[in-house]
Design brief:
Layout lengths: L1 H15 L8 H19 E2 L9 E6 L4 H11 L1 E2 L2 E8 L11 E4 L7 H8 L5 E4 L11 E6 L2 E6 L1 H6 L3 E2 L1 H6 L1 E2 L1
Parallel strand pairs: 2-4, 2-5, 5-6, 6-7, 8-10
Antiparallel strand pairs: 1-9, 3-4, 7-8
């Protein structure tokens, strides 16, 4: 009997190595956020003078989201424009023509400095930490009952000269 149990366990262990691995929660979150960011390019309008040349998505700070964005940029474009992903180690590196700036969670303490630096230009700032939508982030990723969602602070978004399509407003948590 012990031999049967031993070989059954051995056989099950062998097959378990071939079972599909479940992605880590942060991998899933990064993929969902990448899809959200790409779709924001379709449903948010930038002023006409920003609709020429490369479409720049910047990432401020350390995050695994950078790799997912780089994969996306190889496969997708924004209105027939090349998507360029840039990593910024600090706020001073952020380009004048950065269309979207994602602030990593470790860098989220810099939100007020980012908002001051980007004031007056159409840069869509995106964060992913509770209460940052109310703190002035135009878009903030949140989790609600285990589901990935995003908040839109419409007043701030419009102050940046950006316009949001109604379709996006209907699925967002409006602040």
């Amino acid at each position: 009997m012990d031999r049967i149990v031993f070989f059954t366990v051995l056989w099950l262990f062998g097959w378990s190595q071939y079972a599909p691995a479940q992605p880590r929660p942060e991998e899933t979150e990064n993929k969902v956020h990448t899809i959200f960011i790409y779709n924001f390019t379709k449903y948010i309008n930038w002023p006409e003078e920003y609709n020429k040349g490369d479409f720049v998505i910047g990432v401020l700070g350390e995050t695994d989201l950078l790799g997912e964005l780089q994969k996306m940029a190889k496969e997708k474009s924004v209105s027939n424009r090349k998507m360029v992903i840039k990593r910024y180690h600090n706020l001073d590196e952020v380009d004048q023509r950065c269309h979207i700036l994602f602030i990593s969670t470790p860098s989220s303490g810099q939100l007020s400095s980012v908002l001051r630096k980007t004031k007056g230009r159409p840069t869509l700032v995106i964060t992913q930490k509770d209460n940052l939508g109310r703190a002035g982030s135009p878009i903030n990723f949140v989790s609600v009952n285990g589901r990935y969602k995003f908040e839109i602070n419409l007043n701030v978004l419009e102050q940046y000269g950006l316009k949001c399509a109604q379709q996006l407003k209907t699925i967002a948590i409006m602040i």
